[in-house]
Amino acid sequence: MTIPDTTSAEGLKRYQRGTCLATSRGQAWRDLQASIYALPPSGVAHIPAVSEPVLVWTTSGEVEIEEWEDAGPHFKSVIRKGVFFLTSTSGPYHCQWRQLSSERFEYMMALVALPLLQRAMEEVFGVAYAPRARLRDVSGFTDATLNALMEQVRRELHKPKASSLIVQGLAQVIAVHCVQNYADVIDTVPPRGASLPGYKLRQITDWMTEHYAEDFNLDQLASRAGLSKFHFHRLFSHALGVSPSAYHTNLRLDAARTLLRETKRSITDVALSVGYSSSSYFAQVFRKETGMSPRDYRHNP
C-alpha cells in the first residue's frame, strides 16, 4: 500500500497496523473519530500526517517502540497500559515496535474535530487569543480524568449503536480538558507544521546557551520541554531549521571563535573551555564547520 504524506482523520484508519477491534461509524461520531487496534508482537508502520491532533491511549500490554522521520534519528521508548500520547503531526513519520509482555498490546486512537477544538480554544482562551492557541505535543503521560473519559468512549465504540448525545458530550469534554491542560497561547502564529511554543523554545535555547560547555544530552533537553526525545527533536528542528545537537555544536563553535580572535589562549585551552576534552577532535569539528583549522582561523584577518 502506498502511504501518502497527509490524510484526513477518517483516512488515517486505513494506515494503522494490526487488527481493528472497533471503530466509530455514523452521525453520532461527527465530532470524534475513534478506533481500537490490537498490534501483532512486532512490526513496522508508516503514518501520514493529519490536521487534527491525535490522542493515543494504551489500553493493554507493553511494547518498546522506535520512531523516526525520513532521514532523521531514531528514538526508542517503552509504552505501557494507561499511557497517553498527544501529537499534532507536522509530517509523516515511521515507527516499529516489539512486544515486551505476554499481554496483547492494544490502543485507542481518538481525533477531535477541528471546529469543536476551535470552540474549546475560544472558551478557554477567549476569541482574541484562540487563533494563537496550540495544543502541545505531550508524550508518555498519564491523566486520570482523560483515562475515565476514554473509557467511556471505548464503551460507546463497543455498542451496536452509539448514543449521539453521549458521544457529543464526551467529545466536548475531551476537547476542553485537552485545551485546559495541554494548550498554550504562542507569540506568533507559525507556518503550517508544528513547532515548540515561542516561550518554551526561548527557555530551551537560553538554557543551552548557558550550558554549551556541558556534554550534549537530548534526554535532559526533552525532559525540560516536557516531551519525548522523538517529539522534542522534531519540533525543535522544525522551529529552528537545525537539530538540537547541531544547535549545541554551533553554540560551542561561536564561543570558540570569540576566544580564538579575542584571546591568546592555547588551542587546547580553547577546546577545553568550550567543552571538548580532545583538542584534535575540536580541530576536526571546527574545520568541518568553518572550512579552516582553529590556528588558521586565529591568524586569518
Q: What features would you describe in this structure?
A:
Helices cover 41% and strands 22% of the residues. The chain is an alpha+beta fold. Strands 1-2-9-4-7-11 form a six-stranded antiparallel beta sheet. Strands 3-8-5-6 form a four-stranded antiparallel beta sheet, with no helix packed on it. Strands 10-12 form a two-stranded antiparallel ribbon. It is elongated and about 80 Å long.
Helix content: 40-55%
Q: Give the low-confidence spans.
A: 189-193
Q: Shape from CA axes?
A: elongated
**What about the largest sheet?**
6 strands, antiparallel
Alpha-carbon distance between the two ends: 58 Å
Beta strand count: 12
DSSP summary: helix tally:
10
Please write the string of helix (H) and strand (E) elements.
EEEEEEEEEHEEHHEHHHHHHH
Mean pLDDT: 88
Strand proportion, as a percent range, falls in 15-25%
Round the Cα radius of gyration to an integer and report it.
23 Å
Order of adjacent strands in the largest pleated sheet: 1-2-9-4-7-11
Structural class: alpha+beta
